[in-house]
Design a protein that fits this description.
This protein is of the alpha+beta class. 51% of the residues lie in helices and 23% in strands. It has five helices and five strands; from the N terminus they run αββαααβββα. The termini are far apart.
């Protein structure tokens, strides 16, 4: 029992595995994943044994991720709060994520700690909202256009009625002149 894991280590692992977000720890010098929680392994489709040791760029392979990890390779480690990126799953499909990145030093080693969550549902809702807003805007546009057409037609009717009154007035003057003896 001398090799048993300390209770604080067991509890830390339990907390990490029961977190609602994907958690990854990346060694800055190698850019390899040194720790991952159960949620990250499950959502990305990798067993823990395959995930640990994997290069982070195999998972975060989109343009944003590539630029970020290139900066890390150049020694420029930026902490991020709520940045969007894409993670690639083991089956090759991608998942949009929102991530928070922090950095830490343990001993002489630098680590990047990533907390990420799948935002697929949120993006679908935002797309649907944009579609509905566009549809409503189109309805508003059509209603305004219809109102303008109706107003123009009303204005034409008023002008036409004015022309008829003018014409009647002119005809009445002509009839009055003829009745007065001018032929």
């Amino acid at each position: 029992m001398a090799n048993a894991e300390p209770l604080d280590s067991i509890l830390a692992n339990l907390l990490m595995d029961h977190c609602n977000e994907m958690l990854l720890a990346v060694n800055v010098s190698t850019r390899s994943i040194v720790a991952a929680n159960a949620k990250a392994c499950r959502l990305l489709g990798y067993p823990w044994e395959d995930m640990v040791g994997m290069n982070i760029e195999a998972i975060e392979s989109g343009l944003t991720g590539m630029f970020y990890w290139q900066e890390v390779a150049n020694g420029n480690i930026q902490e991020l709060e709520s940045a969007e990126s894409e993670f690639q799953r083991s089956d090759g499909s991608t998942m949009p994520v929102e991530k928070t990145v922090s950095k830490d030093i343990i001993g002489m080693q630098h680590f990047v700690l990533i907390s990420a969550r799948d935002i697929t549902s949120r993006l679908h809702v935002e797309d649907e909202l944009a579609r509905v807003q566009k549809k409503l805007a189109n309805r508003d546009f059509m209603a305004k256009a219809k109102a303008e057409v109706i107003q123009k037609e009303k204005d034409k009717a008023v002008q036409f009625e004015e022309k008829i009154r003018t014409l009647r007035s002119s005809l009445e003057k002509i009839d009055g002149l003829q009745a007065g003896g001018i032929s």
